[in-house]
Amino acid sequence: MPKKLGFTIAFISWMALVTLFSLVSFSEGTLGTINIPHFDKLAHFVFYLVAALLCYAFLWEMAGESLSWVKALIMAVCFAIFYGIIIEVIQSELTRRRQGDFLDILANTLGALLAAVIIKIRFSGKRWLK
Predict the structure, then answer these.
(1) Residue 30, SS3?
(2) Cβ contact 94:19 at 8 Å
(3) Per-residue pLDDT tens for 37-64?
(4) CA 20, CA 13: separation in Å to the nearest integer?
(5) What confidence score (pLDDT) does residue 23 get?
(6) What is the crossing angle of helices 39-63 and 102-123, to 10°?
(7) What is the C-alpha to C-alpha distance for residues 113 and 106, in angstroms, rounded to an integer?
(8) d(CA 13, CA 94)
(9) CB atoms within 10 A of CB 46
(10) DSSP string, 68-113
């Protein structure tokens, strides 16, 4: 019986979207103007929160019971953090209109870590509220 590929497709699509938005420069007005202070940091946070969640689901979908939820969690969070660092380095070194930013890396990392907390709460089996 073939494996379900819903999370695999979602994860690959999401990472393609993150990569596109990270490396392609959009001209002024292309995406509209949002005048919320530090909105880009919020976007980084959300992008990498979702990336880590989808990576975890992808790993779980591919490996199933052969991979513990803890190992899948660690792999997903590490992937998201390292991917975010690599994208920032590429922005800094290989693009003309984009630049790497340490605060973007921080926002990416915090998003991935919140995903870890969400996954831990969901799969640890402990109930905080009775």
Answers:
(1) coil
(2) no
(3) 778 899 999 999 999 999 999 998 899 8
(4) 10
(5) 87
(6) 40
(7) 10
(8) 23
(9) 13
(10) -HHHHHHHHHHHHHHHHHHHHHHHHHH-SS----HHHHHHHHHHHH
